[in-house]
Each structure stands twice: as structure tokens, then as C-alpha cells.
Amino acid sequence: MSIDIHVYPSLLTLVPMLFAPLFLLFRTKVIHKILATLTVLLDLLIIYKLMLAMPIDEYTGGWILRGIHLRFDNLSLIYTLLFVTVIGTSWISSFKKNYPPLFYFLTSILLSTLNTSAITLDLFNIYVMLELSSIIAYILIAMKENWKHLWASLKYLMISYFAFTMYLTAVGLIYMHTGTLDITRISGEISPIIASMLIVPLLLKSGVFPVSMWLPAAHSLAPTEVSAILSGSFVKMGSIVIFRLTSTPILKHAYIPITFIALLSALIGVILAYNESNVKRILAFSTISQMGFVLAGGPIYGSLHAFNHGIFKSLLFFTVGDQVEETGHYDIKALKHAKFPMYRYIFLLIGILGIAGVPLFSGFISKSIIIHHMPLYGKIALILASIGTVASMAKLASIGYRKSILKIPSHYLIFATITVFVGIKYINYALSSWALIESFIVIAIGLAIFLMLHPKHIPRILEKLDIMVIEYMLTLISMWAILYIQR
Amino acid sequence: MRLKHILAWVFVILFVGVVAYSLQTEVPFGHDLTKLAKYYVDNTAKETGIPNFVTAIVVSYRGFDTLGEVTVLLLATLGVIGILPWEKHEKVKKAHPVLLWGIRIVFPIILLVGVYIVIHGHLTPGGGFQAGAVIASAFMLYMVSLSTHLDLEAFAFTESIAGTGFALIGVAGIFAGGAFLYNFLPKGNLFDLFSGGIIPIVYILIGLKVSSELTEVVSHMMKGGAEQ
């Protein structure tokens, strides 16, 4: 039975969604393994078929120009591959632990939601996906029965509903003005307030500094697999929607304030990460910084960095999270006593080399391309942020290792292979003498800072900025002001 | 007052001021229908075979969104059941006889109204979501007044059958007509009860799903009180 290729984009949504209830229905581990494998394989098969015929437009239900517009293009390809890799690999790891069937159900629907967000071009459909994925995140974060987790989840729930209500208002107003919800067909002028009400909620979703102080608590308290999924795939959702919106002619000018926020986030994220002593929170703050890189990079280069970051950050979260779960310590001093087993330390190092932008690892390529294509102020900010990344990751590497039996867990191996493979295969795109020299200088200065500047000498003002509603309002006002002046 | 509080008030007032000031000219009241809205008004009956535009948009034109919205409700239910740690309450006081007798009269009437709304979802205002809330309210009234809870398994079963049914009808559309939620059944005459192809069937399934989910949430909350 053959299916028209023009229906394949919606299959990316439907397949994981139809498999999800089966995880609740059959509660044995063997069947869960079979179902998870089938979901991942079918998803990859659909992506492969779509890749051969890119770009493909679909209107759901066959209602051309009046249904929901889906499009599978280069951007969707990168993101859907990232989503299926991160969630599939987290499933591999989760089979070694005791996760309830609810976990598989939720992550399967999350996969479907994230896939949809990567292909949809409909403003209201994006709202549904934002809502759906956030509800899944609340439940995943709060799944451990502990009041601290509930509080982290509730904090995120409150701020994101405040934001999504604004997004929905903006979508309604755009529909009233232009008579369409299709991103590619919105015409006319979008006023500054509507543009900022549309974009700031997406910034909150993509985890950049002023609006994302929910992220450290949520990412650090969640179980290992959940933090990898949240940091590796969930926070990427906002960035793809922002890329889609800002590549239209009517919202192109909004990219300037977004770049400012992204650069700020890249810088402040690493300062916060360097000050922190809880290992999982270091990684969470580093996500805030790296998402700044992604958004500053724009649709083409930023999406590459989103993919690379999703992969090596998941690897870091897995190695560190497994260590934390094994020893029960979050603090870096306590972990220095326990130390990493040798095999895990090697994989941790691969992740760190990736995120620090060392040549031959994937982070080097996307980072140097992004820095190369920025104006001067952006170059300076991003190089400073890279130095900070090296310094804060050196803290993790300084935990050290002890001798142990050699094991190669398959979920580490998948991420590490992709990090190294991408780093070697595509090195031609970034390789220039300037990029090499720059990366070595960045690493040298970063290590020097790590050796000389102890975090206790840095004042802790930024940590106090976690009154999220006020920060959200401030971001929205400043975004509006910049757009208003620009007009 | 501390500086922090003063700053917070300043930001809140600034924010409300900016939003209110700049939105006042943005809301286009009293304008003509937009192009897309006019299209729906003119062509819905011809294209989908049902006279209710809202139903046609919810179930047919934007059925893909509705699948998402239905999942939102399912996840909310699972979240309440999975996370909300209910504590056993004090023994509840018995309801007043007026309420106990009143519920016997009102309960079937509410159910009947709910069933009427869902069956005529494609003809008259209202539909699966609204009827689901009405039907659930009947069960809620029953549970609250008798301070009891209902069998969760039965509702979970109804809910999963209805949800899977919706998705499967949508997928059947892919094989029958090459698009998700393609209307592959005969459309019949406009304004007939049996018309509109798959639209009434999907809406009845949504009604079943919504009502059982809402009942499940309240039933879970009532469980704490009743188990003593």
C-alpha cells in the first residue's frame, strides 16, 4: 500500500502519537523495547523519504490554502533528526532503569509534538504544540515524588501560561488583521507590540537569559534522561519557530533585538555557569549560554549549532547525571572525592571538547561559522562567551577520574560518535587558519581563567535575578521599544 | 516598602501601560470578515456537507489542531492523576435531602441535554467539547452530592477507545483519500441528522473523550474523601 509523498509530513506527527497509547496498554519491558524501536525506525524512515523529495508542502486534510500548512525543508530535516536521536537514545538509556510506562507515553507524544513544531507553518498550530509540549514537560519534571520538583514544575507552568496567553492574543490579532494564520502568507505590517508578544514567549521557550530562569531548577532536578531530553530537544523548539517567523519579510526586522538578547544570554549564561557549584546546574546554565549562540546564528548556522549542541549537551547530561545518580552528590567538591570512572570520564571529555569548540569536534564547526558571520560587536561577545564556556567546562573536567573496568554504554557511544563524526566530516566548512588560531587562543585564555580566577571572587548579583514575571515584562517592554524606534 | 517591591510595581505599571496603550489601536472592531472567514461562510456547506461552520473548522479544516487539543486534555488528566497527591479528607457531611432528591430529577435531564448537543454537533451550535463538559457536569453533581467516586477504569477505557478511534478515523482518511481526516463517507443531505460523513462520528468520539476525562479528574479528587 503506497502513501502519497505529500502526506508524509503529517505522518511525522501521527506515527509517534499513535504508538504512544500502546506504551500504556502493554506494560512489559520487552514490548516497550519493541515499540520504542519501531517508533524510532519508522520516524527515521519517514525523514529519509522526505529528505529525498525536499521541500514538500502539505495542507492537512487536503484543504489547500484553508487547512494547516506543513512544510518539510532543510530546517525541518536538521531538527527532526535531532529530536528523534535525542529521544531515541534516552529510551535506550531508560531501559536500564525503572521508568513507569507513563514516561514512554509522554516522551513519545513529546517526539510527535516536537516533530510537528519543526514542520508546521501555522501560527495556531504552533500554539497547540507549545501548550502540548509544556504540559509534558511539567509532568516529566514533577514525576519524582518530591515537593522540590513540584515547585520547579509549578514555577515553569505559571510563567509559561502567562507567556502563552500573550502569544495567543497576538495570533488572534494577526488573524483579525491579515485574515490568515499561514506564516508564509501573512502580509502587511505587524505592529511592534504584536511582534514582541509573538516572539518573547518563544524566547522563553528556547531558554535564553532574561526570561528563562525556570530552566536551571527544572533541568537540574529532573532525572537524567529527562534533563537530557529537556536540554537536548525541548528547548530547541522555540528556536525553530523563531527562525521560521524571522525568515518572513514582515518579521525580518525583529531579528535585531533577538540578536541582542541572544548575545546577552550567551555572555551571562557562562558567568552563571562559572559561579555555580552544582554540576547539573552548571550544565543548565551552559544551555542558556549555548542557546544564545543558536539564536545569534540565524536560521542557517544557528540550526547547525542547535543540532550539535543537542547532541553533546545530551552526552554531558548523561555522563554527569549517571554519576550524580550513582554517588548521590550534586556538589563539585563532593564529586571530586568520588571521581568519575575512567570510561565515563572519556565520554565526558568528548562532550566537553565538543561544547568548548575544539577542532575535530562538532562544536568547533558551528561555533566558528556563527562567529565568522557576525558583525564585530557580535564577534567580541561570542568569543568572550566561548572563553567562559571553556572555563566553566574545565571545572567539570577537573573532577578527575579513577581506574575502573572498561564499559562502553551504547547511549554514550551514539552521542559521542555523532559529535566526532560531524566534527571530522564537515571540518572543511570551518577550517581556516583564523578559526584555528582563534579556537586555540579561546581555549588557552579559558583555561587560564579557570586556573587563576576562583568563582568566589565574582560577585553574585546575577543569581538573584529569578523573578521571572518581572524579567518577562522587562524583556517584552525593551523588545517593543527597540522595534518601535526601528520603525 | 522595600526597593524590590517598588521596582516590581514600577515594572508592572509600565508593562500594563505599554500593552494597553499600544493595543488600543490594534483591535479591529466592526470590520468586514477577512478573506478566509468569508471563504468558510460561503463554501463550508458545499465542501463538507454540514451547515455549522464552527464544527466544520474544528473537525474538518483544522482537524489536525483538534487532535492536538484532545491530547492536551488527556495529558492534563494524566497529570492530575499522576502528580496530584491526594490526602484523605475528614469524613464529609451528608448532603441535604433537597439536594439528594433534586439530583435524581436533574441528573437524567442534564445527561439528555448533553447527548442532544453532541448528536446535533454538526447542525446546531455546540458540539463534542461543550457536550463533554455538560455530560461530565452531570456526573460531577452526582459525585459531589453523594460524596462518592465512580469507577475510574470504565472512564479510562471509554477515553482510550474514543481517542484511538479519532486518530484511526483520521488515518483511515489517508488510505481512503490521501489526506489526514479525509471525509470518506457519503455526505448525505444538508440539515439531515445522518449527514456530513465522518464529522458527526468524530465529534461524538470527542464528546465521549472529553466527558470521561473531566469525570475522571473529579472522580480522582473525590476518591480521597470517600475511602474512609
Explain the overall architecture.
Chain A is globular. Chain A has one domain. Chain A contains 20 helices and four strands. With 487 residues, chain A is an all-alpha fold. Helices cover 74% and strands 2% of the residues of chain A. Chain A has helices at residues 8-25, 29-52, 74-94, 101-119, 123-141, 147-178, 192-205, 214-221, 224-234, 236-246, 255-275, 279-327, 332-338, 342-356, 362-372, 376-397, 410-425, 427-430, 433-452, 468-486; strands spanning 56-59, 69-72, 340-341, 401-402. In chain A, the strands form two sheets. A two-stranded antiparallel sheet of chain A has the order 1-2. Chain B is mostly helical and 228 residues long. Chain B has eight helices and no strands. Chain B has helices at 3-23, 35-48, 53-61, 63-83, 97-119, 128-146, 152-177, 198-226. Chain B is globular. The mean pLDDT of chain B is 84. Chains A and B meet through helix 1, helix 4, helix 5, helix 6 and helix 7 of A and helix 1, helix 2, helix 4 and helix 7 of B.
